[in-house]
């Protein structure tokens, strides 16, 4: 669905979401630039949220990046807003990190989930990470708001940080437990120091280039294979193309394939806690959204995201159905 707009419609009656008339009116204004005629999907949120719209239709445009966890988070956002009475333009699966961020800044989408580490190290181009997750969130929220007018809502405790994975058998055979051990392997057995990486990890400062600088080693160019991020897990499990691979810590295939994550013993990888981001003007118009997504974020820990991801990537379920079930089971929809 990359780059493709999906318009959400439904005939189900939904109970509104608790907010003010001003909130509803500005929801309309914020999405006016998205264009198109949209029929709303009304639903109910089984908490203290209610949305009224005396001045017109409430519309929001929701984006996400184009990998499984982001699609699930995007679907959760779309359905929660629909259940709150909004009509949603679904732009989930829009593209990579830079594409979705540009869409937010330029007004192409109204909100999407971004990661605190990505915001700090990529969007703000800060040279050093911050080890404490809450301090990192506060820093990125303050700086992005000040510099770019982007608001960050309270993040989830889930940490979708990068990690380096290896098969258990290979780790035992090579005596590898930490990322520092990779430096020794590159020196002593370079033929076994093979790495599969996704395109973003291969080029980003918080990916391979920064990792090599931080730990003081460098993989041979012909031992690094750039492949689709979603295929890294299987490639590492098979051990044919590469022994090691860049992965997301919350991905459901890690326990399914019994992959070992190397210890980041020199603390290179930042925390990547997902947070709903939106333009400052959007949050000012309807601050009630902070309560809605704060409640949702509070229920999304690392294990939860891993299980949701596994439902899609391992069990083959549709991400929208997975999101629907999670919202219902956690009391956000009736």
**What's the main sheet like?**
5 strands, mixed
Helical content (DSSP H or I, runs of 4+) = 40-55%
Q: Please provide the count of β strands.
A: 11
Between the first and last Cα atoms, what is the distance in angstroms? 28 Å
Q: Round the mean pLDDT to the nearest integer and report it.
A: 85
Could you characterize the architecture of this molecule?
The chain has 334 residues and is of the alpha/beta class. The protein has helices spanning 21-31, 68-83, 97-106, 116-123, 133-148, 168-174, 179-188, 199-203, 208-215, 232-238, 253-256, 280-285, 288-298, 302-313, 319-329, and strands spanning 6-7, 59-65, 87-95, 111-115, 150-152, 162-167, 195-197, 224-226, 244-248, 259-261, 274-279. The protein has a 5-stranded mixed β-sheet with strand order 8-7-9-6-10. It has a 3-stranded mixed β-sheet with strand order 1-3-2. Strand 2 (59-65), helix 2 (68-83) and strand 3 form a beta-alpha-beta unit. Helix 2 (68-83) packs across helix 15 (319-329), helix 4 packs across helix 5 (133-148) and helix 14 (302-313) runs antiparallel to helix 15. The longest helix has 16 residues, at 68-83. The radius of gyration is 21 Å and the shape is globular. It starts with 5 loop residues before the first strand and ends in a 5-residue tail after the last helix.
